[in-house]
Design a protein that fits this description.
812 residues, 6 domains, five-stranded mixed beta sheet, 11% strand
């Protein structure tokens, strides 16, 4: 409560612009219903879940300063903090002030009116033993009696005051002065001094877990009793566990020469001059190639939906098939599939992954719009899509529905942050040097391949997409880092060319398309030719087999020639016209009718040739008449065998008409999955069935102005059986059953019930297990609330009195 009070006081002293920056940094604290006072805002900012959300976004020096302050035991003076960090010059002092200002803008550390630095209560719990130190003396002495405190003061040579509180304050004051602690230890027996020095160096986590049986029991180490009598070590009042050294004592024994780590300057990166035009050209080239590969990969998936492994995901064999057909390497195929799935272009369909109806609309768009969709999906992917093998070298499938990897997402955002901080007009000479920068900007990030260069995969992905070009952040990356989808779309339209609608068809039976082919052009060429290469220029090759494929699909030779002439940059070359004519002339000379099956034609010699063909003997052909053969094999098998031997038969229906061999693209019947991540830095899939849509965005500036005008303390909650009315009946009912919840939590829980919006709660089950649940579609049924539980992926009933706290939704 004291921490909340000082935070409220500090917030009330901010001007509108500074409070706006706090709200922008802690957007979860603005979730509906918006706070009505600075006191309620302080409540939300102090929630453990809210503090946990912001920690992964902090850079290394911010975490180092916060850990040092936690080790000192806030409140602490800036001078003590600077001394612990070893700040010795003006430049480092200015950097420390900048870090403290950054922590203040996140409402994690702030100055109080007494010249001390305070920190959010939950922030201290982020470290079990900050800097290898135990808790401060005052916390360790919580269970000590007044007589025990008196004995410690007497042993130290300090006259004990009269009350317990005064004795505690006197002991804390004595041990807070390093010189006095060192003077006491200097008089200690050798065994006690050695024990104390070892405790100070090792920290609490390295201490032996012996059991203390009493004042002189066998669990005490030599010299421990002397240190316990003087409060240099503190023993559990029940005599269990190791003796613990207060943080003040450990700091004094470590001496002034031992400093906490503080790296306010990011790692150096070798850079070279680069112009915006050079970055644009390289980024545009990379994006154009990727967009072309993406259309090819998804077109292959549309023609033949990739099969899923029994264990889930798309295996190496299917990935190789897709890559060969689309002329794309494994990394590009994986990147396309994962981003397309996240964007809802692919979805599960039984034992396959098939394009959805959203894909059909996407395929009709221009390349800039197509690329923007995939690029925005990549920004928010809770995985590293190009990771092909795990740490043991085992091959990983794509689209395996693995648990969200928030550390992978932090690595991507760390790359954007690191590249954005490079000097203007400079790019890294070697992009591998961005790896240490990512670790500095996002210490909680994860590099999936520890043996390779740090974060090599995410850097390579950024280069494939044109986010990093010439070692600098491109225009795409700038808007991705700002989380500005509209800006991303504008830059895509500026840098990516529109689709090419024409092809250069040569006498060597090739069709060359510069840039990204339009959906209509790519579909036409895929139907009459075989794609050989994709990228900045795509090449198709015509052959008798590819022309026959078009004829089998029901298209006539004149229609094929006319369609190609419509997209050709010039007249059709004569060799291609001859190929179409010659293939059409032989097409259908033999017709195969179903009867398990019957072959007939107008040329007796040709039928006799088929009947005598040794390689067709397995079909069991038998001549019934000069122009009729019967086969013991099914129609499809007979047609396939004849084509394999160089003949060009056509299949007939039972009515005697030519059967059109047109394959209908497979589409996923399942609903389009929502993107697998929501939020700026978090991870996870979107809401399960019944989850509400996104809330209306709150303007931080407007809310800051409103809060500064309101009274700083929140309105007192009304008692359940009378008093001032609540804002809604739901608030009154929730407050009556969840009596231990603060009013700000009651407001958010009631709002979620009334609006159907999701939220996350800390819940204690009847078994005593404490869990964190994200709930959607809440229905109030006092004393219970029914909701969709994202943890169990099912409907569940929760007791209101067992809800311990609430926070903004964290959707998995």
């Amino acid at each position: 409560m004291k921490s909340r009070s000082t935070l409220t006081t500090w917030l009330s002293g901010l001007d509108g612009s500074r409070l706006t920056r706090v709200l922008e940094a802690r957007r979860d604290a603005m979730s509906p219903p918006t706070p009505r006072s600075l006191g309620e805002l302080a409540d939300r900012l102090q929630r453990p879940g809210s503090v946990a959300l912001v920690l992964p976004r902090l850079a290394l020096p911010h975490l180092q300063v916060a850990e040092a302050l936690a080790a000192l035991g806030a409140p602490a003076s800036r001078e003590a903090l600077a001394g612990l960090l070893g700040v010795a010059d003006d430049e480092t002092a200015r950097r420390l002030d900048a870090v403290l200002e950054g922590l203040a803008e996140h409402a994690l550390v702030w100055p109080d009116g007494a010249g001390k630095l305070r920190m959010a209560g939950p922030l201290r719990q982020a470290w079990d033993a900050p800097l290898g130190l135990d808790e401060p003396l005052e916390q360790l002495l919580a269970g000590v009696t007044s007589d025990e405190l008196r004995g410690m003061l007497v042993a130290l040579g300090v006259k004990p005051p009269g009350t317990k509180a005064q004795r505690l304050a006197a002991l804390v004051e004595h041990h807070s002065t390093a010189e006095q602690v060192l003077a006491v230890v200097a008089k200690a027996p050798a065994a006690a001094r050695k024990l104390l020095e070892r405790h100070a160096e090792d920290g609490p986590e390295q201490q032996p877990r012996f059991v203390v049986f009493g004042a002189s029991g066998p669990g005490l180490e030599p010299g421990a009793r002397w240190a316990l009598d003087r409060g240099l070590l503190i023993q559990d009042r029940h005599g269990y566990g190791p003796a613990r050294m207060p943080a003040e004592v450990a700091l004094a024994l470590r001496g002034p020469g031992r400093h906490a780590p503080f790296d306010p300057v990011p790692p150096a990166v070798r850079t070279a001059s680069v112009t915006p035009q050079e970055v644009d050209r390289e980024a545009a080239a990379a994006a154009t190639v990727f967009a072309s590969h993406a259309t090819s990969v998804l077109s292959v998936c549309s023609a033949t939906a990739p099969a899923r492994l029994k264990s889930g995901g798309i295996g190496a064999r299917e990935l190789a098939r897709i890559g060969k057909a689309a002329q794309a390497d494994d990394a590009v195929v994986r990147l396309v599939l994962e981003t397309a799935y996240a964007a809802g272009l692919l979805g599960p369909d039984g034992d396959r992954v098939a394009p959805t109806e959203t894909y059909d609309a996407w395929a009709r768009q221009e390349p800039p719009e197509q690329f923007a969709v995939l690029l925005q999906a990549w920004r928010n992917l809770p995985l590293t899509p190009t990771q092909a093998r795990d740490e043991d070298g085992k091959a990983l499938p794509a689209l395996a529905a693995a648990p969200p990897c928030r550390a992978c997402l932090r690595a991507r955002h760390g790359l954007l942050a690191a590249a954005e901080e490079l000097p203007a007009g400079q790019g890294a000479t070697a992009t591998s040097e961005l790896g240490p920068l990512i670790a500095w900007y996002r210490p909680f990030a994860h590099s999936p391949l520890p043996d390779a260069a740090p974060f090599a995969l995410v850097i390579r992905e950024a280069e494939l997409l044109g986010v990093i070009a010439r070692g600098a952040l491109s225009a795409f990356g700038i808007h991705l880092w700002a989380d500005d989808p509209e800006g991303v779309g504008i830059e895509c339209r500026r840098l990516l060319p529109s689709a090419t609608a024409t092809a250069r068809i040569g006498a060597d039976l090739t069709a060359v398309v510069t840039g990204t082919p339009s959906a209509r052009l790519a579909s036409l060429l895929d139907s009459v030719a075989d794609r050989e290469t994709s990228g900045t220029a795509s090449v198709w090759r015509f052959s008798a087999g590819s022309i026959r494929r078009a004829l089998d699909a029901g298209r006539g030779p004149d229609a094929i020639a006319a369609d190609l002439a419509a997209v050709a940059a010039g007249p059709l070359p004569q060799p291609l016209s001859y190929l179409i004519t010659d293939t059409a002339r032989g097409h259908g000379r033999v017709r195969v009718a179903p009867a398990a099956c019957v072959l007939h034609g107008d040329e007796p010699a040709l039928l006799a040739e088929l009947a005598a063909h040794r390689r067709l003997a397995k079909l069991g052909l038998r001549q019934l008449a000069p122009t009729v053969l019967v086969s013991r094999s099914p129609l499809d098998a007979t047609v396939t065998a004849l084509r394999a031997e160089g003949y060009a038969p056509v299949a007939e229906t039972a009515e005697g008409t030519v059967r059109i061999e047109r394959t209908r693209p497979q589409r996923a019947a399942a609903p389009v999955p929502a993107p697998r991540r929501t939020g700026a830095e978090g991870g996870g899939r979107a809401a399960a069935p019944g989850a509400a849509g996104a809330a209306v965005a709150v303007d931080p500036g407007a809310l800051a102005a409103q809060l500064l005008k309101a009274p700083p303390t929140p309105p007192a909650p009304a008692p359940f059986d009378g008093g001032p009315p609540f804002a809604t009946d739901t608030e009154e009912i929730v407050a009556g059953y969840a009596k231990h919840l603060p009013y700000s939590d009651v407001r958010q829980l009631a709002h979620a019930i009334d609006t159907g919006e999701p939220l996350t709660v800390e819940y204690v089950a009847a078994s005593g297990n404490r869990t964190v649940r994200t709930l959607s579609s809440l229905v109030l049924d006092p004393p219970y609330v029914e909701a969709w539980c994202h943890l169990r992926d099912d409907e569940r009933v929760f007791t209101l009195s067992r809800i311990q706290s609430v926070m903004s939704p964290v959707l998995e």
